[in-house]
Amino acid sequence: MPETAEIVEVGPRDGLQNEARLIPTEEKIALVDLLSCAGFRRIEVASFVSPKWVPQMADGAEVLSGIQRWDGVRYMALTPNMRGYDGAKAAGVDQVAVFASASEGFSKANLNASIPESLERFEEVVRTAKADGLSVRGYVSCVTDCPFDGAVAPTEVAKVSAALLAMGCDEISLGDTIGRGTPDAVDAMLAAVLQVAEMDMLAGHFHDTSGLALENVDVALERGLRIFDSAVGGLGGCPYAPGAAGNLATEKLDAHLVTRGYHTGLQRHFVAKAGRMAKEMRNGGG
Ligand code: HMG
Ligand code: MG
Predict the structure, then answer these.
(1) Which of 3.90.1070.20, 3.20.20.70, 3.90.1150.10, 1.25.40.10 is the CATH number of 6-282?
(2) Which of 24, 93, 94, 237 could be disulfide-bonded to 18 (CB atoms 3.0-4.6 Å)?
(3) How far is CA 59 from the centre of its chain?
């Protein structure tokens, strides 16, 4: 029996949030519906953030009400505060995500809050979500490098991860937000985080700016991680992280994991079709 690795598809959120063209809601729904056919167990479909900050994500509720819900697929959304949480809950999400940074520069740029202020804000979100029976993902951004502060110490990543776990997050997704992490830096970061978290609670979220994302996946596999985020078509970036290029492409990640002997459960032709659709969306729609 091959060992299982989970790919969490974040394209409809992390992929599309950075696109300059305001993508029509129907196109987003069509992409999510295609992804549901592909065999993902989790798809991040929306962000309930300020539309002034990320206009592209303003239609999260409409996307969630328009998609077909597949049994066995959990539909996730980002929720930076209680307002976002209430919107996501009303839209019927299955999992919410709070998102912190290991560096102060990015925390301020992305959330208009210091790291401690953001963690304080997330406490109520996580507590409420858990009371409502929803599972919660905690992102930590800039796990090796920050576009504002430079190199980030592994201990800072461990500190923020521990705080998110202590408030009740079920999983931590470790984000190389600008895709500058080298395998050595990722390995040192994971060694620190594994002091405070079990390996099955950790996910790797690698952007592919420097073409090192798959090497970083290998480092994480070696450390025991089996959950990875990616975006079909390699879409993505973060509007508040200058230099952040696309996410690791799901097509590449799936092929890589399968070659390494892992079972991902994805249907390759649907993933490829979704990748083509995502690229058309980037190029102005079909
Ligand atoms: P703020 O300006 O400090 O907050 O933003 P505010 O409370 O003053 O609100 C500003 C306005 O937004 C107000 O409206 C609020 O009502 C409204 P106004 O009174 O001016 O008309 N507002 C909201 N509207 C809808 N939904 C909400 C909401 N909250 C406030 N939830 C805030 C603080 C957190 C809202 C803002 O900084 C924000 O939205 N940031 C999100 C930025 C973002 O989405 N970044 C991309 C996702 S993170 C990422 O990509 C990294 C990741 O992929 C991992 C990795 O790669 O590392 C996850
Ligand atoms: Mg990201």
Answers:
(1) 3.20.20.70
(2) 237
(3) 18
What lines the ligand 1 site, CB under 6 Å? 14, 17, 47-54, 78, 80-81, 83-84, 99, 110-112, 139, 141, 175, 177, 205, 238, 240
Domain spans of the chain, in order of start? 6-282
Active site residue 238: yes
Tens place of pLDDT per residue across the chain (286 aa):
789 999 999 999 999 998 989 999 999 999 999 999 999 999 999 999 999 999 999 999 999 999 999 999 999 999 999 999 999 999 999 999 999 999 999 999 999 999 999 999 999 999 999 999 999 999 999 999 999 999 999 999 999 999 999 999 999 999 999 999 999 999 999 999 999 999 999 999 999 998 999 999 999 999 999 999 999 999 987 778 777 778 999 999 999 999 999 999 999 999 999 999 999 998 776 5
**Whole-prediction pTM value?**
0.97
Instruction: Please tell me the total number of residues recorded for the chain in this structure.
Output: 286
Burial call 119-148: b when 16+ CB within 10 Å, e when fewer: bebbeebbebbeeeebbbbbbbbbbbbbbb
Ligand 1, atom 44: closest residue by C-alpha? 49
Residue with tokens 């819900």: 69
In DSSP terms, 206 is beta-bridged to 176
